[in-house]
Structures are given as structure tokens and as C-alpha cells.
Design goal:
THDP-binding, pyruvate, Rossmann fold, oxidoreductase, TonB_box_CS, five-stranded mixed sheet, alpha/beta, branched-chain 2-oxo acid dehydrogenase activity
Amino acid sequence: MSETAAITPAPITLIEAITQALAYEIQHDDSVVVLGEDVGVNGGVFRATAGLQQRFGDQRVLDTPLDETTIAGLTVGMASQGMKPVAEAQFDGFMYPMVDFIVSHAARMRYRTRGRLHCPMVLRVPWGGGIRAPEHHSEANEAIFTNVPGLRVVMPSSPQRAYGLLLAAIRDPDPVIYMEPKRIYRQYKELVPDDGEALPLDVCFVLRDGSDITLVTWGAQVKETLEAAESLAKDGISAEVIDVATLKPLDFATIAESVAKTGRCVIVHEAAKTAGFGAEIAARIAEECLFDLLAPVERVTGYDTHIPLFRLEMKYLPSVDKIVAAARRAMAHK
């Protein structure tokens, strides 16, 4: 183990893994710059950048105006000139003023210049509900960005994957939307060696092997999906759990292989059902795995409403009971 890796003596949370990955890249790559609202002096609204400006200086960790459009423009400009900016949108609902720069410029840079320029930027986004936040602070808007050619969309579900995938995102030569499920920022801890080892992008992670049904999910819903698999196992139902992790480009081969084995699939996501990213996965299964299926594909999702405030918030989100019920419906088909 390297001297750097020995620095991590105890398990850390997902948000601490983000901080650890940012610090590693700033320290080891002079082109990496972190910027956003309150990321410097205050360490970010969720403290993902706590201590980084004090450690690396205000030329590497920059506080910006409270202006998402300007942040996005600065980020694209820096990236097109050889830097590796990591910008933060304070909340998922604050991304919308950034869309013009992300879609019209960052995502098109390589295409527009026929490969002469690229845009190695990362936009970090605290994502999703479950923290009793007001409007614009609990969006599950990943499907908007999975529809855009030229973007990678990544969502970690554990401290270890948060660290490894963020390192990979920063090192990637093209723009990455890196969505961090804030409901699980501090929910549990893992040992995360600070060794600079990136995890691969563009692959799904099979978190649990199974033979009867495939459960596909990402982000905060991984926890409930794994718990649902445990519950199903008590009744003799063997569930395979897949964490998509990189939504775009999608590693459909891993999903298809699992569906071919189990014949049944439940897709779980927090976003609204209509045109959510689960619909894309379900469509691909229908196109490529139809004759492997023993039952219709089930989806467990949010509702086609904005997430309610506040007492109904957890009712909106996928739950273990909802996932188990969907799996039982699929299993009822013989």
C-alpha cells in the first residue's frame, strides 16, 4: 500500500469520499480546479469541499458568484483551454440555467471541432430527494442529460464507488455530469483507501448474484434494492442486483446477460415514471431480450408529479415494500 493510501485509517461517508477524491486530484494534477458557489471558504453547502481551499489555495478552489450560468460558462471555457475544472451546482434544481452551456457547448465540443478540441469538465450535482428540502432542491433529473449526445452521466451509490468514479470522471477527456445522491451522503461508511485508483466508467456493477429475477437501479435506491433482495431471499427468491452507476453510455450488455439468466426484471428509480431513464432500459430489454423474458418488465419509480413537501416525501420515493411487491408480480408469471 502506498504512503498516500495509509492516510485513510477508518471508514468514511460518501461525502467524505468525494472530498478525498477531489483532494487527490488537485494534489496530483496541476490542471484540476474546483469552482462553485461557496465551495471555498465555506466548503460547499454539503461540505464536500471542506478544507480544500485552506489546503490548496484560492487559485485551485474558487468561490464564484451566485450565478449558475456564469459557473457553467467558466467551466466550459477552462476545459476547452486545457484545464480540468470540477464545478459544483449546489442542488440538482439549480442545473437548469447551466443547460445552455452544457448542451450547446460542452457536449458538442469534440463533435463541433472534429476531435481537435475536447471538454474535460465535471459538473458535480447533489441529486435527489429524501432530505426534506424545498422546491428545486430535490430533483431527479438524470434523464434530461442521458438524452444528450456527448455527455457522460455518472451516479455513485457508495463511498467506494463515489471515490473511484469521481477520479475516473475528472480524468475523462469529455464532459461528465456527476450526480451525487445526497440522501446517502452520510448514511453509512466504508473503508476507502486514498490510493488514486479509479473505477471504470461505462460499466454496471453487479452487487449481488441471483438466478430468479434481475433488479436494476442506481444512486440512493441501491440501498433499498439490496434490502429488497434480502427480503426476497427469505422466501427463496434469488435476486440479482445491478447498480447501473454510469447511465450514459449504458453498459446494457451486463443487464442483458442478467436478464437472459433470470428471465425477469424490475427497474427501480426515483425519477418520475414517464420518460424516466428506466423506460430506456425497459425499451432495450424489449428490443434485445424479448425472448428471454418470462414476465413483463416492472418499474418502481417516483410519481409523475414534483416531489411533495414534506410529509409525503418518503411516500414518493421507491421503498423496499414497493420493490418486493413488483418482484412478486414478476415472479407470479410462470
